[in-house]
Structure formats: structure tokens, C-alpha cells
Amino acid sequence: MHTIIRCCLLLAAIAAAGAVHAADTSPPAAFPVSSVERGIEADSSTVLMPASETGTITVNQCVGCRAERLSVTPATRYYAGTQQLTLRELKSLLTPGHTTLMTVFADPKEPIVLRIVAQTAPPPARR
Fold first, then answer.
1. pLDDT by residue (tens digit) across 51-98?
2. Cβ count within 10 A of residue 83
3. Mean pLDDT on 23-51
4. What's the CATH number where 110 sits?
5. Is 110 exposed, middle or buried (0-12, 13-18, 19+ CB in 10 A)?
6. Considering the entire predicted model, what is its pTM?
7. Residue 122 CB contacts under 8 Å (≥ 6 apart), including other chains
8. Is residue 124 part of a domain?
9. Residue 47 near residue 60, CB atoms below 8 Å
């Protein structure tokens, strides 16, 4: 008989603890999160590429959206897919009248471009 009472008390205590835990609406303990870059997705028709490796790029995420001007530096990297290119090579792949999806990765704290990735085929391999 005592065993049944003990089991019932144990089950009641477990159920009460679960109810208290379920009623707790406080957010879980947070870990510090910091962004190392931010991505801006656009298509080539809304991106004005820089004239030089120390110029500016203008990115407009959508028609009617406010354009954003960011600086490029000699440290900025340019890619067609996963292949790294020079600025000149990337610009040669962006043909007028053809829309290419692009992602501009920028420093989250400063208006500086870290890399530009165009979702297009890279140029033929150099010989």
C-alpha cells in the first residue's frame, strides 16, 4: 500500500515540475552573436559596378527601394560562382540585357564590400 502511495506522490511531483517548466516563458540563455558580414541580394540590373578597385558600388535590392552605396577596396574579392576573378573579368561577364543574380557581402559596421558573388558561369579557363 505504501508503495502505491509513494508512486502516486512521485508521479504528482514529476507532473507538477513539468507544468512549472512549461509555464516558464522566459527566453533561453542567449549566447553572444556577432555578424562578420551582411549579404545584400540583388540582380545585375539593379547593381552599378565600381569603375575601379577603389571605387563605389551602388546596390538597389528592388525597384523602388533606396539604393545603397558601398566602397570597394583592393581587398574586395570578386567571384563568378566559386571561381575568384578580377573586377574586370567579373564586369565582362555581366552583359547588358541579361539579368544575373548577385550577392554583395559587406562589413556589418562599415559601408565596405568584402566580396561580390555573381551566380553565373565563370569565363573559360585561361591557357
1. 999 999 999 988 788 999 999 999 999 999 999 999 999 999 998 778
2. 13
3. 82
4. 2.40.50
5. exposed
6. 0.70
7. 80, 81, 83, 85, 93
8. no
9. yes
Distances (CA, A) of 30 to 26, 52, 83, 91: 11, 42, 37, 43
Domain annotation covers residue 91: yes
Distance separating alpha carbons of residues 17 and 33, to the nearest angstrom: 31
Gap between the Cα atoms of 56 and 42, Å rounded: 16
Contact 117, 79 (CB under 8 A): yes
Q: Can you give the residue range of the structural domain that contains 107?
A: 38-118
Cβ contacts of 82-91, under 8 Å, gap ≥ 24: 83/122, 85/122, 85/123, 87/49, 87/50, 87/52, 87/53, 89/123, 90/49, 90/116, 90/118, 91/49
Q: How many domains does the chain contain in total? A: 1
Would the pLDDT of 5 be above 80? Answer: no
User: Parallel, antiparallel, or unpaired: how do β-strands 101-106 and 113-118 relate?
Assistant: antiparallel
- The gap from C-alpha 10 to its chain's centroid, in whole angstroms, comes to 49
DSSP code, position 125: P
